[in-house]
Design goal:
309 residues
Length: 309
């Protein structure tokens, strides 16, 4: 049923922990499944191979992902161009009230990272953009050049866990008075003065992560996805989430284990847990040494699987 090249999709983004994700979904051949982060389509394609009369809905807000989806010529498949935070609203249009499984790979794709004009990587000269959805107005450049010192400190501390967030915010405000900070190289030139050389890579990654999360409102979007999935999954349905940094993984862990984002045990008046999920793995699965050799970007991946009770 597929056209196009599997190799080209793998070049877009090598699916992390692919076998573990598919097993975790416990696929019913006649079920309804959602890939909340289509990307290159690696997960969606394998799920489709395991369906008979089932249906597959894939979401992505990236224009390039929509282009990739055109290669899938299959009446059981529907691509939806939009943010996964609106999953319930979109599926309602297709008269879907309950689903059998949902998978979300929260990582930035290799394709996005390797496009200089997207501004996701410190390795290339490009505009400070970092938008997953090119139609939104805010960019990383807007944030760097307009946010108050207090707000800059907040996002670097909260979203990047940057230790010298206050100093970084002060330096940015001082530097932008001399001229706008427009490119990734403009910005990394500032960052280099604030960190020892041996810590450069990690520091840059933390700062760029914080900006990307703020630009795309990723934390709130993830919370909305998790809360909607609890209402949309059938009893026995599976939720499979791949996260790549501690902030995301903490939210996913707390919600799947405790039913809330704070990680506190909550019970009803009869003493029963309010948690809508049962965790399949209480500790996250991680990539094997063999997979890491093939795909070093899988190093930070954390896979959590839960079943709707």
């Amino acid at each position: 049923m597929f056209s196009g090249s599997w190799i080209s999709e793998m070049d877009y983004h090598i699916p992390v922990l692919l076998d573990e994700c598919i097993r975790g979904l416990n696929i019913d051949p006649d079920g309804v499944y959602v890939d909340a982060t289509f990307g290159g389509g690696g997960h969606s394609r394998v799920i489709l191979e395991k369906l008979d009369n089932g249906r597959m809905f894939a979401f992505d807000q990236d224009e390039d992902a929509e282009t990739n989806a055109r290669d899938i010529i299959d009446p059981r498949f529907r691509f939806i161009s939009g943010n996964f935070r609106h999953i319930k609203k979109y599926l309602k249009l297709y008269e879907v009230k309950k689903i059998d499984g949902l998978i979300a790979d929260l990582g930035v794709s290799s394709h996005q990272i390797d496009q200089p004009e997207r501004g996701f990587s410190t390795r290339f000269e490009g505009n400070l953009d970092m938008r997953m959805d090119n139609t939104i107005d805010i960019t990383a450049g807007n944030i760097i050049n307009t946010y108050s010192q207090e707000n800059l400190q907040r996002i670097f501390s909260e979203y990047g866990e940057v230790r010298n967030a206050r100093t970084l915010a002060q330096v940015i405000v001082r530097e932008r008075i001399r001229g706008k900070i427009l490119t990734t190289q403009d910005f990394t030139g500032i960052l280099e003065k604030l960190v020892p050389g041996h810590k450069r890579f990690k520091y840059f990654a933390q700062v760029f992560q914080a900006l990307r999360i703020e630009v795309n409102d990723e934390i709130n979007a993830l919370k909305e996805l998790l809360m909607q999935s609890a209402g949309m999954l059938k009893t026995g349905g599976r939720l499979v989430i791949l996260s790549y940094h501690s902030l995301e993984d903490r939210l996913v862990k707390n919600y799947l284990l405790k039913g809330n984002f704070e990680g506190t045990e909550q019970k009803d008046i009869y003493g029963h847990s309010d948690n809508p999920f049962m965790a399949i793995n209480r500790k996250p699965m991680m990539a094997s040494p063999g997979e890491l050799e093939r795909n070093p970007r899988a190093k930070s991946a954390r896979l959590r699987i839960a079943e709707k009770t």
